[in-house]
């Protein structure tokens, strides 16, 4: 499993340094290793079993989470609309030996979340959520996801501080969450900046 993560870290580093030429829609745009370690640790501390991920990409973050979710006897639903990335992610999951705990929902995040919202079994269901998709819809994603999160459940949102081009959008996101009386939230400087939000009620 960790060999696959290291391989993906090397690929991400090459993409960020522009040492390899990758089409924009095929770039990994992955979380950092430090963020992966943070997610893994929170899942373990919470003994989280039901996870939702919005924005799978090629599965780097998913594998970090799956390593802990497997130990907890849980499973992951992850959302991605890019078929090229889905193909790569499936290969990565196979190599990492985590495929059995991951269900990929292919499509637009908004549509998949709407579908999940209509199913009674997903109300207050997810113990742990990672939001790492398009930033312009982050507030809408959060509002749709919150009813699906269990009391005491954790929502992590990536890219709060970096890249800087997202900062204005993510500032609005942070303000929106801070105004919600049903959560407690804090911005951590780990990785690209992580919003760590706990559902209180």
Automatic annotation (TrEMBL):
InterPro entries membership: Cation-dep_OMT, SAM-dependent_MTases_sf, SAM_O-MeTrfase
Gene3D superfamilies attached to this UniProt entry: Vaccinia Virus protein VP39
GO biological process: one example: methylation
Keyword hit for Ion transport: no
SUPFAM superfamilies: S-adenosyl-L-methionine-dependent methyltransferases (SSF53335)
Gene Ontology MF terms: O-methyltransferase activity; S-adenosylmethionine-dependent methyltransferase activity
Designated name of the protein: O-methyltransferase family protein
Species this protein is from: Candidatus Nitrosopumilus koreensis AR1
Native organism taxonomy: Archaea, Nitrososphaerota, Nitrososphaeria, Nitrosopumilales, Nitrosopumilaceae
